[in-house]
Amino acid sequence: MSRHLLCLEDLGRDGLRRVLELAEAAELEPLLEGRSVGLFFEHPSARTRNAFEAAVFQLGGHPVSIRAEEIGIDSRETAEDVARTLACFHSVIGGRVGAHSTLERMAAALDKPAVAVPIVNLLSDRQHPSQAVADLLTLRAHLGELRGTTLAYVGDHNNVSRSLVVAGAFVGMRVNLASPPGYAMGGAELAWARSLGGEVQLFAQPAEAVAGADAVYTDVWLSMGQSDELEARRRAFAGYGVDEALLSGAGDRAIVMHCLPAHRGEEISEELLEGPRSVVWEQATNRMHAARGILAYLMEQHEGRAR
Ligand code: CP
Ligand code: NVA
Fold this sequence. Notes:
This protein has helices at 12-24, 47-58, 68-71, 79-87, 100-109, 129-143, 159-171, 187-195, 206-210, 230-236, 244-247, 270-273, 280-306, and strands spanning 36-41, 62-67, 92-96, 119-121, 150-154, 174-178, 200-203, 215-218, 255-258.
C-alpha cells in the first residue's frame, strides 16, 4: 500500500474503513503533537485549507499553509526539490495542484527512507480524495449502511466524481453518472472502476441516472484550471443542471450534495441548494473530520513503518 494519499484507491478498502473510523472517533491521540504539517496550494481553497488547518490543530500539531507563488514549484525550483525541502520540516505534506503529475513527482522524490514523509492530495485535476471521505461521512450520517444504496452524479465527470466512483466501489454504493458527450467517463476508465468492484452505470440523460437514487450530487461545470472553456461548457451542459424537477424522480429520502463552491443557476438551482434536502454544509463540516481521519491514518501508517 502506498504511504501517500494521491488517489482514493491508494487507501484500499481497509485503509478507507480505518480513515472513516478515525474520522468518526470522538477522541483521538494527539498524533501530531510537537509536529508540523505543510499545506501548499496552487489553486484557491476555502474549505480544504481551513479543514486541514483545523484538523492539524485538533491532533496537536501546527499547520503551515503556503501559496504556490511563495515556493515557485517548477519555476523557482523543481517540484521534487520543493517536496524534499518541505520534508525537512514537516511530518505530512498536503498539496493542491493543477497537474496530478506534480504530486506523483513529489511522492517519487520522497520514496527514500531519509525523506519518508507522506503526501496527501488536497485536490488535483485527477482526484479530490479528501472530499470523497467527507462525502462518505455525510452519506453515512443520512443513509446509514451504504452497501446497496445509489448515488447519482450529474454534470462534469471530474476530479470529484472520479474519487466518488472509487468511494462507491469500496463501500458497495452504486454510482450512476450522467454527463454530456465529451465530458463523460470513458470506456477504459469505466472498466477500471468496475475492476475495483464498482457498480458504475453511465447515462446520457440526468433523469435516468437520478431515478430512485438515494443521493444526487453535482459539481461545477468548470473546474479550476479550465477557465478558458466556460462558454463552450455552458452550452454543452445545458439540461444537466440539478433542480427540483430532476430531484422529483429520485428516492423519497434522497439528499442533495455539492462539494462547493457552487454556481447557483448553473449546475444547481438556488432552491435546491438552499432547500431541506441539501446537505452541502454538512459536507463542508465533514471536510474537517475527514482531514483529521486522513492525517491520523497517515501518522499511524508512518509510525507503523518506522517501528
Ligand atoms: N470543496 C472544496 O474542496 O472546497 P475548496 O476548494 O474551497 O477547498
Ligand atoms: N471540480 C472542482 C472542485 C472544487 C472543490 C474543481 O476542481 O475546481
